[in-house]
Amino acid sequence: MEPVSTAAPESARRRATRARLVQAAQQEFGKNGIDATSVEQLCEAAGFTRGAFYSNFATKDDLCVAIAEHFAEQTIRSCHESLASLPDRPTPVDIVAKILGAASLTEDQHRTQLELQLRAWRDPELGARMAAVRADTLPLAAEVIARATAQAGVEMLVDVNDLIRIFEALFFAPTLAREGTSLRLIAYVANHLTRDTHP
């Protein structure tokens, strides 16, 4: 009889451990900042020892990249699920509400995303790694926008990548996040940068 492989359960445990560390980091980085959050704090928040961190990540920058990848994957998946529940002939406002609902963040998670952007801006090596994550994500985000505009029966008046950048700038702006005005402004932009194609 051949020995039973234990590779799959170990892989599943590793993924679960990484996911818990990523989740804890999104909260702790948002509360305290990346540099002010120690590995010990992260592990305590996730319910692990330091060994669990270093068996998954060599540095906090590795964890930052994992957070960016997780956010991108989760957001794209949630957007597709949300668009599937839209009514027939949705308006741009309907679509924006669905997409932003799928990409919704807690205050700590929102601050963590801003922390990641600043850290990547200051550190060229991390910046290059984060840019690679973004390069992988942009085509998937463009697919979401293309699907959404097709459902709404509208066409974009600007390049899809430019539209994504505009939406991101409004979505992540700290002042707009505090005011709660991102949805209104993104919907306004969406209305003015698309054109109805229905006869």
UniProtKB/TrEMBL annotation:
Transmembrane segments: none annotated. Residues 38-57 bind DNA. Residues 15-75 form the HTH tetR-type domain. InterPro entries: Homeodomain-like_sf, HTH-type_TetR-like_transc_reg, HTH_TetR. This is TetR/AcrR family transcriptional regulator. Keywords: DNA-binding, Transcription, Transcription regulation. SUPFAM superfamilies: Homeodomain-like. The keyword NADP does not apply. It holds the Pfam family TetR_N.
